Amino acid sequence: MKPPYCFLCHRDFHLDKGGDLVRFADYVPLAEGMIGHPSGSEWFCPEHLSAATALAFKTSSEALHDLQREYGEFPPLPFFGLGPHREPTVLFVGALMHKIVGIVRKITGRSPPKDK
Ligand SMILES: [Zn+2]
Q1: Chain centroid, CA 70 distance in Å
Q2: Are 15 and 26 within 8 A, CB to CB?
Q3: DSSP conformation class of 61
Q4: What's the gap in Å between 9 CA and the centre of ligand 1?
């Protein structure tokens, strides 16, 4: 399941404050035993939930299009994690460095200076 960021405004909201999941006409439940987010269902913050629910008879992309015409487009969600053009995070591990390098060398077979 996706975390509760509003499908329209991308705001991170807490479910106890009134936002909810809306199932649109293109909703397809996950098969039994599958883990993930069912297509055609999207989170909406308290501010946009009623407008989104009123459009639940449409597909999620049609509803998003209509909502964007009414409320405008919002900045995209910030990117989380490493992408193809991002540098890895530098960690300061102090006295554990020799143990970490040993584990990495055991796994990768590379020499310690490269791994550091
Ligand atoms: Zn919203």
Answers
A1: 24
A2: no
A3: H
A4: 4
Taking only the tens place, the pLDDT of each residue in 1-47 is 888 999 999 998 877 788 999 999 999 999 988 889 999 999 999 99
3 state SS of 23:
strand
Cα–Cα distances in angstroms (integers) from residue 23 to residues 28, 38, 45, 114, 116, in the given order: 9, 9, 14, 49, 48
Ligand 1 centroid, distance to 4 Cα (angstroms): 10
What is the distance between the alpha carbons of residues 66 and 5, in angstroms, rounded to a whole number?
18
For tokens 């008879």, the residue is 57
Segment 73-100, tens digit of pLDDT = 998 876 665 555 555 555 566 777 777 7
Q: Where are the domains of the chain?
A: 15-71, 81-116
